[in-house]
Amino acid sequence: MTVEDIKMEDAIVESPNTTDSMIEDEPTSTVTNEKQDESKRAMSPISEKEREKQEWVKKMRLKFCVRPEFEITKNMIYPDGTLNQDYFRPPKGAKKEEARKWTEVEKELLIKGIEKHGIGSFGEISKESLPKWSTNDLRIKCIRLIGRQNLQLYRGWKGNADDIAREYSRNKEIGLKFGTWKQGVLVYDDEGLVEKELLAQKNSADEDVDME
Q1: Is the N end or the C end of the chain the one with fewer CB atoms within 10 Å?
Q2: Which pLDDT band, with edges at 50, 70 and 90, does 13 fall under?
Q3: pTM of this prediction?
Q4: How high is the pLDDT of residue 103?
């Protein structure tokens, strides 16, 4: 047997294996493609729903965000309904808001303001002594200071630091009595027990003043 005959036999032996390998590989590739197609089909409804949602949002923006009577809103969104991100960024060169800190100094100024103007006159107190703090800021500080969430019965009330401290202790006592002392302040209850107690004490105090 010649060398050429041996090579020919080797080729014949190897050929079936190669063919089998090719035949075996084809189903694997087909299965993989089918799985990918199934995955795409499974994701398609979700993607379509998300796209519809985004389109709806864009329509709502176009309908409600841009108001002809407010010139500033015309650049809020683009004609296709997408947001103009530059509109929401701070303007270049804008000064960073100065950080505020509530210290004992501010607390004393608020107390003096209450003593002079009374609770409820936070606009005057802000303008006169605490310009960096808004009316609402001072109202919240006063709530913490005197220990009562609802300041309605205190409207116009004036007092110094000692008077405020006494009111705080009284409010705390009532809150602990009815279980309505929450986060350092007296809050009203649904049954009206706190309000009834406060009104009773107020009427009693008013009677004492009249007797004097």
Answers
A1: C
A2: very low
A3: 0.55
A4: 96
20 within some domain: no
**Given 60, 86, 112, which residue is the final one in a domain?**
86
Q: 120 with 190, same domain?
A: yes
User: String of b and e for 165-175 (b: at least 16 CB within 10 Å)?
Assistant: eebbebbbebb
Residue 120: other Cβ atoms inside 10 A: 18
Same-domain check for residues 147 and 173: yes
Give the least confident one: 17-21, 47-51, 99-103. 17-21
Q: Could you read off the pLDDT of 167-204 as tens digits, one per residue?
A: 999 999 999 999 999 999 999 999 999 999 999 988 87
82 and 109 fall within a common domain: no
Measure the N-to-C terminal CA separation of the chain; round to a whole number of Å: 140
Assess if residue 17 is contained within a domain.
Answer: no
Q: Could you tell me the residue range of the domain that residue 46 belongs to?
A: 26-86
Q: Nearest CA to 135 among 143, 148, 125, 145?
A: 125
Number of H helices, E strands in the chain: 7, 2
Q: Which neighbouring-strand residues pair with 181?
A: 186
